[in-house]
Amino acid sequence: xxxxxxxxxxxxxxxxxxxxxxxxxxxxxxxxxxxxxxxxxxxxxxxxxxxxxxxxxxxxxxxxxxxxxxxxxxxxxxxxxxxxxxxxxxxxxxxxxxxxxxxxxxxxxxxxxxxxxxxxxxxxxxxxxxxxxxxxxxxxxxxxxxxxxxxxxxxxxxxxxxxxxxxxxxxxxxxxxxxxxxxxxxxxxxxxxxxxxxxxxxxxxxxxxxxxxxxxxxxxxxxxxxxxxxxxxxxxxxxxxxxxxxxxxxx
Length: 251
Description:
Helix content is 42%, strand content 17%. By secondary structure, it is an alpha/beta fold. Strands 3-2-1-4-5-7-6 form a seven-stranded mixed beta sheet, with helices on both faces. It starts with a helix and ends with a strand. The relative contact order is 0.13.
């Protein structure tokens, strides 16, 4: 029999749980300023099945608790984090080519998460974990300070209209957050195929006094051979877009 006191406790716990869930949903769906928009893309049957069956194995639930990488991956290794991995093309290629590193991919869009999970299983990768959540909150809450060997930001939404520039993820506050999560001499690697956004990134990065340009001052880096060209990037190249890479080290 449930006592009145126990009923009140259960009700309180349920309310707290619902409030936490609502707060997370609010971050993903509200009209507050953010760098992404949830798109209701078509989720294939295979992607849905991958999310149901593989996310418990290869996914990390969002939490206010900082991750213990050794517990997550079962070993101690340098950790790379990719923000907005799309379908996971580059993420999985990097994980396969660099088995000595561990990788965390963050993406909000469900079809991309499902596609990446399918790729993890097909390639039999054990060094990749997926978080389906807002990358800023993941960096704030889940990633320990001074812990990442590399942060990757490939082809984020350029938000081309001037009134939308506030939505661009590369802002002063974001760079300060990323820098605080990088280990000493670790690298932030950004790439874009929009010239205006490349100039924006370069300006913002050069203004961050805890990051140092690995190219000559006020210049872009050559694309490293290990950075796989994504389908999105290849499409941009076909349209005549130049690709800009920016590599900065935590100083």
